[in-house]
Design goal:
mainly alpha, Fumarase C, Chain B, domain 1, Fumarase C, Chain A, domain 2, Ribonucleotide Reductase Protein R1, domain 1, 3 domains, 19 helices, argininosuccinate lyase activity, Argininosuccinate lyase, Fumarate_lyase_CS
Length: 476
């Protein structure tokens, strides 16, 4: 990468516009290669950040004396004019604008004296420029995505508090296991989303680290004050090594990993809802706003939003894997392979924006069927409570587990639900059973008995809501 910039009116062989790197080239570039190489079609999304970074860099150059204050002001004025064109959709790309950096500098040298505009790239490479633009763009987008994620958590808290009295089956291996509260199930997913929020918060400082001033790979030869430049551009710190600075794409990979993990959690939540809202379960019903019908079967109400969320998770994991495969064999430092990561990064941000908002919408609008939840509870789910009854009578749990299992077998043999066994039936298995055993045949009491921190009792569930709400407030 060369540090010399030229205006857009000059000519290369064959009358082509000059490029930032064309000085040593004497042959025309293959038109297919031009198309193959360009990235303006997608990195134009970073137009604002590219201009903001250039404004900051011009100020840094002025502080070194490489350009005068008047030249800095002229560059700033020109860059703001270019930005206005982008914002009004008036910017016209031209042949040779292979990326956002080339396009902006070409246009700058058209709206101001090209001899002044040509000084902007002094000591700077597109290697440190693109890394800087990307970090500036990504930090802004991640701030928005975090708001969407936290909104999803807030919706979960609100519903958990309001609907805390509804009990439902809890499952392991998709088999009825124990009684839980609907709110407890919902907060189990919110707990995963909280970890996703923690990961995103932890990621932000590593995104917000400035590569600018690293040059192509070896550093800046003009004494640019990188700490002051970082402050101007609202970075928390500077990249400590210039070779690593232009080569590092960890922050993109970490973003994709965060997105993959978050969508994996959303996918599992979606799968639960797909199952629970099916006719066979019927415990929940998705809003028409997030469902579709069948072109053939009029009765169908398909949970398409949830299924798409589940599908997006797989695609996102593939995007992450793709970038890891791209980077794994690249030598130090910058390689053009890196360009392939930007499409995945943009897609990641767009996908997460849609998915987080859709998930919040699905959760906020879905309807519960509390009666169906209750009717889905089966007495066999109280087998553990039966074993715990005997524990309270002084027996070791390993022994009571076998006794409770024998009671389940007896109920199967007698073709009755577990709670229909008589006290005499139970005494035939263990003489520790007494008349008060009838008190355990209550799903509500079963849920309430799990009253430890993090359990499914009403008090515990509301405590979880309060803690999660406090977390959101403390980490604003």
């Amino acid at each position: 990468m060369t540090t010399h910039a030229t205006g857009g009116d000059g000519g290369a062989p064959g009358g082509e516009p000059k490029k930032l790197w064309g000085g040593a080239f004497s042959e025309k570039i293959d038109p297919l290669m031009e198309k193959f190489n360009e990235s303006l079609s997608f990195d134009r999304r970073m137009a604002l950040e590219d201009i903001e970074g250039s404004i900051g860099y011009a100020s840094a150059l002025a502080r070194t004396g490489i350009i005068t204050e008047e030249e800095r002001n002229e560059i700033h004025k020109g860059l703001k004019k270019v930005l206005e064109e982008w914002q009004s959709d008036a910017f016209v790309a031209k042949e040779g604008d292979e990326d956002i950096h080339t396009a902006n500098e070409r246009r700058l040298c058209e709206v101001i004296d090209s001899n002044i505009g040509g000084k902007l790239h002094t000591g700077r490479s597109r290697n440190d420029q693109v890394a800087t633009d990307t970090r500036m763009w990504l930090r802004k987008e991640l701030t928005v995505l975090r708001k969407y994620l936290r909104t999803l958590i807030e919706v979960a808290i609100d519903r958990a508090e309001k609907e805390v009295d509804h009990v439902m089956p809890g499952f392991t291996h998709l088999q009825s296991a124990q009684t839980v509260r609907f709110s407890h199930w919902l907060l189990s997913h919110a707990a995963a989303w909280q970890r996703d929020d923690m990961r995103l918060k932890d990621l932000m400082p590593r995104v917000n680290t400035m590569p600018l001033g690293s040059g192509a790979l070896a550093g800046n030869p003009f004494g640019v004050d990188r700490q002051l430049l970082a402050k101007d551009l609202n970075f928390e710190r500077v990249c400590p090594n210039s070779m690593d600075a232009v080569s590092d794409r960890d922050f993109v990979i970490e973003t994709m990993f965060w997105a993959s993990m978050t969508l994996m959690h959303i996918s599992r939540w979606s799968e639960d809802l797909i199952v629970y809202s099916s006719q066979q379960f019927g415990m929940m019903q998705m809003s028409d706003a997030y469902s579709t019908g069948s072109s053939l079967m009029p009765q169908k109400k398909n949970p398409d939003a949830l299924e798409l969320l589940r599908g997006k998770a797989g695609r996102q994991i593939g995007t992450l894997t793709g970038l890891l495969c791209i980077l794994k064999g690249t030598p130090t430092t910058y390689n053009k392979d890196f360009q392939e990561g930007w499409l995945g990064m943009f897609e990641t941000v767009d996908t997460m924006s849609d998915c987080l908002q859709i998930a919040a919408g699905c959760l906020a609008t879905m309807k519960l069927n509390p009666e169906k939840m209750k009717s889905s509870l089966v007495a066999e789910m109280l087998a553990t409570d039966l074993a715990e009854y005997l524990v309270r009578k002084g027996m070791p749990f390993r022994e009571t587990h076998h006794i409770s299992g024998a009671a389940v077998k007896l109920a199967v043999d007698k073709k009755v639900p577990l709670d229909q066994l008589t006290v005499d039936d139970l005494k035939s298995i263990c003489d520790k059973f007494e008349d008060d055993v009838a008190e355990i045949w209550s799903y509500e009491k079963s849920a309430e008995s799990r009253d430890t921190e993090g359990g499914t009792s009403r008090r515990s569930v509301l405590e979880q809501c309060a803690k999660l709400r406090a977390y959101l407030k403390e980490t604003e």
